[in-house]
Amino acid sequence: MSDMGKTANPGDAEVVVTELFSGEHETVSHVSLPAGTSYIIAPEAGAEVLVLEGAATEGSDELEQHSWLRSPTDTKLELKAGPNGARIWVKVDNLNQVQSQIKRVLDAA
Q: pTM surpassing 0.70?
């Protein structure tokens, strides 16, 4: 989204995604999840999630305020808001450089 405005999550019209920054190596967004709604993240180059307020679950992980989650490349996350909703900070497609650096170190060994 190039105008950095607000968009509804395609999976749930109640979820509001506000893009904060989009660059060559990452996209950062603020996501407002009303109670019980879900937000799916499926980036090719990994993701990081920080719960700013409220609570959410991802699989069997319970994320409370200030919880942080990092997913590896090519991993799908489905965040589901708790009973009071959640506000989360999401950074996607920023971990591809990590993978190339790990490969470089392993190749040098």
A: yes
**CA angle, 5 as apex, 64 and 71 as ends, to 5°?**
40
- If DSSP codes are grouped into helix, strand and coil, which group holds residue 30? strand
Separation CA 95–CA 53 (nearest Å): 24
The residue count for the chain: 109
Contact by Cβ (8 Å): 2, 24 = no
List, as one string, the DSSP characters of 41-53: E--TT-EEEEEEE
Low-confidence spans in the chain with pLDDT less than 70: 1-12, 99
Dihedral class, residue 20 (left if φ above 0, else alpha if ψ from -120 to 50, else beta) = alpha
Three-point CA angle 44, 46, 52, nearest 5°: 130
Name the one residue in this structure whose structure tokens are 């509001």: 16
